[in-house]
Amino acid sequence: MRALLFLAVVAAGATACSGSDGVDCGGTAPVAGTWDYHGAQTTPPPGSTLTGTLDVSSVDGCTFDGTLSVAETPEGGGAVVNRAGAFFGIAVSATVVNFDVQFTPGVARTHVAEVTGDSLAGTWIEGSGSSAPRGTFWAKRTGL
Fold first, then answer.
1. CATH of the domain at 108
2. Could you tell me if 72 and 48 are in contact, meaning their C-beta atoms sit under 8 angstroms apart?
3. What is the pLDDT of residues 98-110, one digit of tens each?
């Protein structure tokens, strides 16, 4: 069910941002700046926690891009893995954003989040299928 909701949000975003005169997303979510990023991989077990920085370096209308750098700590112990990648995103509305980051070339980790003031909160999935890594995340803006 969660996957269907995710697909509906992505499809709505694609429709909302494809006007005949160019990009028209009905509003621009306020995402510019640097964000303190926290995430959790909940599937597959045992999971992990992710902490780092989401840096939105460019906003143009309802599109934005930047980099995400995190330290991923396995829940059951083990070595911390540092991950970093560029992302591209789109404001689906004035309060919902969707962005893809690639920690592994050719494999997108898609994030969908609600923007509330200086906070983001949502879900992510990497790849597709029932066994695809997925989880939740939140971020707090720390600077412009």
1. 2.40.128.120
2. yes
3. 999 999 889 999 9
Q: pLDDT tens digits for 32-89?
A: 999 999 999 999 999 999 999 999 999 998 899 999 999 999 998 899 999 999 999 9
**Residues near 104 by beta carbon (within 8 Å), at least 6 away in sequence:** none
Distance CA 117, CA 3 (A): 26
Sort strands 96-104 and 107-116 into parallel, antiparallel or unpaired.
antiparallel
Is residue 50 within 8 A of residue 72, CB to CB? The reply is: yes
Domain holding 115, by residue range, is 2-143
Report the alpha-carbon distance of residue 132 to residue 124 in Å, rounded. 10
pTM of the model: 0.81
Instruction: Extract long-range pairs of 80-86: CB within 8 Å, 24+ residues apart.
Output: 83/50, 85/109
Count how many domains the chain has: 1
Structure tokens at 77: 């112990």
30 preceded by a cis bond (ω within 30 of 0): no
Amino acid found at 44: P
